[in-house]
Write the structure tokens for this entry.
Amino acid sequence: MKRLAKKQLTDKELSDYSREHLLYELNMFWQLARTIPKNEPDKPSFTLSVLLESFVIHLRNLTDFFYNRTAPKGYVIARHFFGDPSHWTPNITPALKQARPRANEEVSHLTQGRKSGSQSDKLWGTAGLLKEMEVVARDSAAKASAKKLHPAVKEFLTQPTDEMVLWLEKNVTYSNVAAQSLTSTSNSAGSFSPSAPTTAVIKTK
């Protein structure tokens, strides 16, 4: 199937995009940073691996969004939300600069950069990375064009630090950017049978 050509987004399209997709990325990153410490981060488990890998993926997405100065056609970055893109030139912090290639090598791709065993440098400092991301995110929202960045994103990024997750819980919904269909079968007795298929659609982002 031929893909549609990507075009430059209008101010309205950028606003709508940030309301759905940027706010989703921020929501996932903030919620995961809060959730991971509650799941015994010193005890490896399947659940912890899922949470950490999701955190790292959203960390990578947001780092690229805020710090990239150019982007392939069809990609959206923070500079697109400025009337003059040259007005957004933040310097990446050492911690985020170190985390970005780690995210690429240790999670997003199968590389020789993946760490084995339980090395001390295999740990992810989720709380510290959240603090650094909060600084650049707030700065971007404060300086971005009000015509391009949705008010909801600005509202979230002006909340007191200890109230940000509460705001997300009250204001963010999960849209079906991706939908996974699970097919199962059951009979009248409640046991599974290949003769009575049912499909459940789980909406995810």
